[in-house]
Amino acid sequence: MSLIWLKKQVQDLKDQHLYNNILTIESAVGPEIKIGGKKLLNFCSNNYLGLANNPEMKKAAIAAIKKYGIGPTAVRTIAGTTVLHKELEAALAKFKKAEAVITFQSGFSANTAVIPALVGEGDLIFSDELNHASIIDGCRLSKAEVIRYVHINPVDLEEKLKAADKKTKKLVITDGVFSMDGDIAPLDKIYAVTSKYGAMLMVDDAHGEGVLGTSGRGIVDHFKLHGKVDVEIGTMSKAFGVVGGMAAGKKELIEWLSQRGRPFLFSSAMTIPDVAACIAAVKLLTKSGSLVKKLWKNADYLRTGLKKLGFDTGSSISPIIPLMLGDSKLAQNFSKELFNEGLFAKAIVYPTVAQGKARIRIMNSAGHSEQHLDKALKIFAKVGRKLNVI
Ligand SMILES: *Cc1c(COP(=O)(O)O)cnc(C)c1O
Question: What family does the database annotate (predicted)?
Answer without folding.
Answer: Belongs to the class-II pyridoxal-phosphate-dependent aminotransferase family.
